[in-house]
Amino acid sequence: MFKAIVYTQWRWSRLLVLAGTVTAFALPIMSVQGLNVLGEAAPWTARDILEHAESRSVWYAVLAGVLGLLLATTVWHSDHRGRHQYALSLPVPRWQFVMQRFGAGAVLLGAPVLAFAAGCLLAAASLTLPDGLQTYPVALSLRFALAAFVAYGVFFAISAATVRTAAYVLALVGAVLATQVLLEAAHIEIDLLGTFYERASYWPGPAEIFTGRWTLIDV
Amino acid sequence: MSNAIEVRELLYQVKTFEIRDFTLNVPSGSIYGFLGPNGCGKTTTIQLLLGLRRARGGSISVLGHAVPRGVTRVLARTGYVPEHPHLYPNLTVDESLQYHAAFYPGWDRDRAKGMLSRFDLRGSQAVGRLSKGETGKLLVLVALAQMPELLVLDEPTDGLDPVVRRDVMTALLDYVSEHKATVFVSSHLVHELERACDWIGVMDRGRMVVEMPMQSFKRGIKRLRFTQPPALTQETPFEVLSRSAAESTGLGEEWLVSGWEPAMAQALESGSGALREIVDMDLEESFVALLSRSRASLS
Predict the structure, then answer these.
(1) Which of A71-81 are b and which e, b meaning 16 or more Cβ less than 10 Å from the residue's Cβ?
(2) Is ipTM strictly over 0.85?
């Protein structure tokens, strides 16, 4: 049964998975490629290399988030179109069907995650760094994997919900924004957005994985 | 005879529509025609039977399991053909069959293959690109290849051309006669049900109007033409659904009655009435008469 679900998921998401896999493999290699070329022309200091690596690191987080988001939305797309009649009429408990759908998407997400790890290892192997700097391909790959799965999990939950639930979530976000605007207009110093961002982005917030150091090269 | 489907005092409400005090008995092994005008609640009832919607009250039992608690076991033994195609449009026919088969341990690959060629369907064609007739055939194929004990068919031939309709009905009836399965089929195509069904239930505005064996239904509803209508009393052994002046002559009256028995003719003759003619009615006329009666009593 799981195999059949993975297959349907593959049929719907294969272009995305293929494009994601190629991008995930290429991104770490491309991010250090310039470094080597520049390094040959004019020797770089350790500081320059770190700055260069950090400037590229944001794209790793963006890629992880985008992959999770896009894959999660394709998981339910066909079921939403049929108002979930097909899934509900199958002789499987609903929780089990949802878990299998989640698992199928996670399996497919494994391809770009592994490709990213391969890209990181290849990029690291191609570098010759000055003393004091090291590459962290495994740590970066694990961070990427975790971030991609967190994004996938969050957006899977949102896209599994009904349109009404999605509307409630949007209404809540809109209400927070409107309240913030009103508070600022009234010169009341309460930073709702900042508080929300901090709660989400720092431990134990779910987006904590996206903040912090994403560099392939570090001291 | 046990019932494959039993519904008691069902209550379901959504916005302005409700199903109330709804009772249904589908005997095992029967072909049960579920009739009703568009929008009367047939599809909603079917979705309640299969756990796709949740009732507010009452009880539903299908194949001996309470719904929604035991719905997974019900669905494993039930072939369902929904009103609107539910298969994933971006899979091919072959892929759809493989996907569906993965959920049904009793899936009969040979039957599926045989029906594929019998229905002239190409396995490589995308489901979303099938014509309406081909989609209808695929849905029936999928329902039958899972070897169900119960078939729940929601307007299975609605919008299909006569050739496809005949193919679909033949396949269904072949399966039923072969496996003694129970069939619960909803439709507003009265003539189609008249030929195939042995039980009938008529629903209108969320309520069951009548439920009885097809033969009783057809035998019991008559049009009586009187030159001299008898006086109606409490003891009149049949129910008068409607009465009007005779259309052809303008003399006498025409009555539409249910619960008619042949022996009643003599009793009428011996009383004050003069019965001129007893006219058999087809299912459609009976259906329309029952609905008119039901609506009149509700208003």
Answers:
(1) bbbbbbebbee
(2) no
